[in-house]
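Chapter review: from sequence to fold.
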Amino acid sequence: MIRDFLKKRPVRQKAEEQEMEPEIPAGLWKKCNKCGAAIYTEDVIKGHYICPKCKGYFRVHARRRINSIVDEGSFKEWNADMPSSNPLRFPGYEKKLAEVKEKTNLNEAIVTGIGEIDGRKVVLGVMDARFFMGSMGYDVGEKVAAAVERAIEEKLPVILFTCSGGARMQEGIVSLMQMAKTSAALKRHSDAGLLSITVLTDPTTGGVTASFAMLGDIILSEPGALIGFAGPRVIEQTIHQKLPEGFQRAEFLLEHGFLDGIVRREEMKQTLSNLLMLHETNNVCQMPANETKSYKKSGEKIAAWDRVMISRMPERPTGLDYIEAVFTDFIELHGDRYFGDDGAIVGGIARFQGVPVTVIAQQKGKNTKDNIKRNFGMPSPEGYRKALRLMKQAEKFHRPIICFVDTPGAFCGLEAEERGQGEAIARNLYEMSALKVPVLSIFIGEGGSGGALAMAVADEVWMMENAIYSVLSPEGFASILWKDAKKAADAAKVMKITAADLKKLGIIDYIIREEEPATMETMEPICSDISEQIQRFLATYSQKEGEQLAAHRYERFRNM
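The token string follows.
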């Protein structure tokens, strides 16, 4: 009876059963398997194996990819002679393995070893779809784990290029266990404070997606790559629905918060080199401490409401403008790894006078279209979760954190409540209070309520002269207390929301002078002041141990 029942059940098709795309055939002319155009072989090879007609990506053999990434002659392969295993004694498997080995000149679906990228040593693992569609069995899991363990011993970063259909069916439950093995190895690598980068290529599905592919400190992808746990054919046959165009492609994942970025193949080596540079362990803050400037009052008396209006001026420079002006080598990282990539918060890694730092900014738009993309600078839960992810990453790599605050407040729409806006803000306050790296927050425009505070639990908080920081907008304050939003100017006066007011109250530590209201034309002296003070801040706080920083931050807010 059980056998009859099983016979009636539909056979579940796995992601690794997807048909392999045709290899580039030998000969002078090729046919692109994406657009069907006839293309010249030499053009494809010189063009990083990208179709010159449709810009579609061909799959690249592991050793070709390695040669395109590492410095010439620097790669040394590990475990090239690892014997094959057949843990389930699957009939015909050993014969098939031998055939694939002979055809591909590979001993498994991944090549691992050590190489250099622009002179920086790195452990590499590159998967190859020609070998059982890049499926993960015992040998793949063993090679990944062994490479990561050796990286821990030698204190080296790891870069893994994934290309896989999922689990190796011929190895059954043993294949499944490789997901746990590789994940555990990367956890140890992370706990050792080392950098891991994964680069997802077409396709990355099944057990590889649900293990080491999605566990990098930084996750990149090639354009258009298929990425998912279950393959699209499996999903369609399971739910009996047609999937939307672009579903599970790299661009879809970037929009939904699961990738840090999409990198074109011709830019991959330079991008990886820049990331390795920003994570070098010899990057130490060695800046002479400067005396803190005292704030001099502006000669002109400006009313609180006027400062509110100036803080909201569309001409004011945004967070990205200050990042570009004050820092170098900025690489933006995307996504909260849960739901989406919120345009109202941008963040990434940069250098300040040679020192790697994490910079995060609440970002308003420059025009209507940009403001819609940025949600007018009002972050959603995924924005705060992205910011916190980058802060925790900074803590792991001992990078100071610099936040630029400029928001009317956290977004209060229905969808924000559904996704836990309050929890996201609370989690930031909770985690920021105990970060073991220096944290600086700079208010450059509006500082609206908890939406601003969620990026301002810092060792020092600064404000620009025409910035504001308040429990609620003056209009909202007047509506609640006086039932009349038209009294917003009176509210601004009594709320004590200007930089001068908050300096007296001990809420902020320093005021950045604006001789003229900040615009792109007047920001040079402002940026000079910011740079000088950041230098002083880093010189002071980078000398403190992590526990000292957390204790200092706790006492700062404990005494508020």
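Two observations follow directly from the output. Residues 166 and 206 are 4 Å apart (CA to CA). The mean pLDDT is 91.
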